Amino acid sequence: MLGSNLARILFSTVTIDEKPRGYPEQLKREGKNVIYAFWHSFMLIPGYVVRGLGVKVLISRHTDGEYIAHISQQLGFEIVRGSTTRGGVEALLKMIKEVKDTSFIITPDGPKGPRFVVKPGVIFLGQKTGLPIVPVSLGLSSYWELPSWDKFRIPKPFSKATIIYGKPIHIPLKLNRSEIEECRVQLEKKLNEITAESRQLVKN
User: Fold this and answer.
1) Which residues form the DUF374 domain (predicted)?
2) What DSSP line would sit under 31-78, residue for residue?
């Protein structure tokens, strides 16, 4: 994986196209806080784009999460440690307590997969904080793919990246189990739709 300095150098060579352009900065100016949700394997570029905006990141307590947490902090993020399998409830509750004037990043298929399958923790976070969930996905023109469960992708130098921000998904405060599943499936479907769209757009 990349060190923070190497990451900055690498990302500075990548041409990044956002749709809509400057969306995170716009939300910040308007004082709107959200939960950014993107697949674990795509986290580098979207995370890099929102650095310095006061966004908090939920990162696994697993061994690989230690390295990601260090890099994320060096890039300007505030970290909340936990996952759906280790310390997840405590981390989510900590996020809820810190919700004032804060946006969050969560990878809903992390930390161990299955790949591209949303886990219900993000729905719980949206429900308890009242923050809308913004689906985010990424297309890369050229990348290295790691032999990990998520096929983690690192953009190659001077490649192109297309980021798509989906429309915010608002989670009702009161939900039964079947309604939580409906929201989970809705987010998963949208993430997969914009993943396919971003892959197509980056080729053009």
Assistant:
1) 50-115
2) T---EEE--GGG-HHHHHHTTTS--EEEE-SSHHHHHHHHHHHHTT-E
